[in-house]
Amino acid sequence: MAKLELLKKYAKLAVEVGANVQTNQLVWVNSSTETKELARLIVEAAYNRGAKEVNVNWSDDYVSRLGYDNMSVETLEEIPQWSIEKAKYFMDQGGCVISITSPIPGLNAGVDPIKMQKSGIARSKAFKFYQDHMMGNHAQWSIVAAPNKVWAEKVFPNLKGDEAVEALWDAILVASRVTESNDPIAEWAEHNKTLLAHNKVLNDLNFEELHFSNSLGTDLHLKLVDNHVWAGGGEDSTKGVYFNPNIPTEENFTMPLKNGVNGKVVATKPLNYQGNLIEDFWLVFKDGKVVDYDAAKQKETLENLLKNDEGSSYLGEVALISHDSPISNSGILFLNTLFDENASCHLALGQAYPMNVKGGTKMSADELKAAGANMSMAHSDFMFGSEDMNIVGTKKDGTKVQVFKNGDFVI
Ligand code: ZN
Ligand code: ZN
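Above: inputs. Below: predicted complex with zinc ion.
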């Protein structure tokens, strides 16, 4: 099959399974100029699906970099009213969004951090109404990925230029369950069924605690908050349209009890934090807090993360992912959370997701804290799953249930 045909399958997947574009719906595609080929295919697929209008919001990270270098902080903080009106128009029209992620590692190295921070804060404040609309699932949204040369050469240091880009394309497509011989849309329907079935089983078991252990030395007792909710897979918009926020996604995740984590966890993949790779590290928890740690590389970066704020040395998320999954099987470190966090069981230091406790999305910060949720400006996922990971859950009545045996779900 020609490459173009594969990319068309991927674009169709983004439109039909990702955002699940509806007849006569307005569609936004967020794309950088680096990914215009995929953007055009997504536009075509959206029209084929019956979209009313497809509008591409083009960006160019090199142009943005020039802006950071040459504009004053005051100018960077100015948010033009028309851009706010545009977002409001999109919301009023009931539009949905497909975003193509294609990070350019290291591009903003050397930019004045104050400029980035201040313009970022100004943008988040001005567009909070839009963020709330999307995070509250009032519209369908989906993130897919496409390579660029700089990213591809970082992932495949032994390849150059087009060869690296092709290798990263292959890896992205396999991870997204798009292959020459399959029907990705049917395969995603099956995949979502599996994820939802795991959510249901885990929610019904309503564990008090999970015990993780493997031969690398992980021996971790992790309590879950009362009324926790396992999530993962597709979601319903508030208008009842089923969509997949992330392509790919492999995880079932929920909320650890902030003060209820004890024992040692040994990471199985490097953690990319602020552009630095923390390698071969472990953490020891006592009553939820990291009390000891070490790393073969970038220990000081790990220390920065842990000392970011009070909550960054506590956990906010626990996610279960079978070792036998496309991303894990590829053995590739993508240097992009969309992929890497789906490679194996992970934990996140920092902020918890309100959706992972019953009624959480309507709780105040104080109510969430009282429920046992960790709060932090950070949310850093790190992988600790392995092919010999065993997980045993303990129910409220003390009964034990094996959840993972040798790296994979057994429930
Ligand atoms: Zn996760
Ligand atoms: Zn996470």
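The two ends are 37 Å apart (CA to CA).
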